[in-house]
Amino acid sequence: MPTGGPSPPARPADSERAGGAAVKQPGRRATRTATRQSFRRARAERLAPYVLVAPAVLIIVALRLWPLALGVNFSFTGDGELNGTAVGLGNYLELAGDPLFRTSMRNVGLLVLLLPLAVAIPGLLATFIYLRVPGHRVYRSVYFFPAVLSPVIVGAIFNLMLGYDGPLNSVLAVIGAGPVDWLGDPGIAMFTVTGVHVWATFGMALVVFLAGFSTLDASLLDAARVDGASLGRTIWHVIIPSLTRTIQFVFVTTMIGMLTSMFGLLFVMTSGGPEGTTYLPEYYIWHQQGQLNRPALASAASTVLFVVMLVVGLLQITLIRRAGRQD
């Protein structure tokens, strides 16, 4: 056989294997690149919610939780000559022995008892508006209007209306009823101020209820009408179970408003009187801090108010959730 001739041409099988290896190598790199991109995309999607809520969390921590922690820490220090000195539970023991603070806490209990009524009023009005009673558009505007008024203006208006010689007592005199000292009688002054607060603020709760009605399944109301259900049964068995989350929100926000937004009315209408019977914790806190210059004692009262609001809010949510499950 000759030994010096040219090499034979490559066989088709060999060339195919070489080409296949050349094609396969870029395919693996493309696959690895796509995998890395997919992993990065998945990681970005997981991190996106945390990035979006981070500014709000930072604001809450900086403007809410951190001052709250400082206030709780300050409540264990003294006032006056003991300023900055640790006194343990001394401020809390003083609060327990202060008749004005005990009165303010009893009034908190009264507000909790009146809370269902304060929520039911805007809830019923929102129901009537949703059912399109005649003039419902006008009622919506009229009911919301007091919410835009300053508490000072509302207090001044009702001071004139509820005065001993005011228009309301004049109307009572016409029908033969004696005059009532709405703001000077220790037995009814707190009820009067609470009623004015409910009137001035239920417009916001009304808007929340109307927003909740927008998520209500109208077919349920139609089925109730076909079955001949009365308005009361429709509200109890259809509307309330369907608006459980809305009712939870309104309960909690109304309670917070009662405990933290009545200062203006109390200051203008009663100034804590008569005989301290209209004191609430926020008014007590202002009195200790602003009038008596006792910031540590005021911090202790603020801490107690925060704990009360937290406990009451959690209890309300728990009870409403249980009622919703039973329905």
TrEMBL record:
Query: Matching InterPro entries, A to Z?
Result: ABC_transporter_permease, MetI-like, MetI-like_sf
Domain ABC transmembrane type-1 positions:
100-316
An example GO BP is:
transmembrane transport
Q: Where is this region: Disordered?
A: 1-36
SUPFAM superfamilies documented for this protein: MetI-like (SSF161098)
Does Transport count among this protein's keywords?
yes
Per the record, membrane topology reads: Multi-pass membrane protein
Q: Name one Pfam family in it.
A: BPD_transp_1
- What PANTHER family does UniProt report for this protein, alphabetically? ABC TRANSPORTER PERMEASE PROTEIN, DIACETYLCHITOBIOSE UPTAKE SYSTEM PERMEASE PROTEIN NGCF
Belongs to which family? Answer: Belongs to the binding-protein-dependent transport system permease family.
Identification of the protein by name: Multiple sugar transport system permease protein
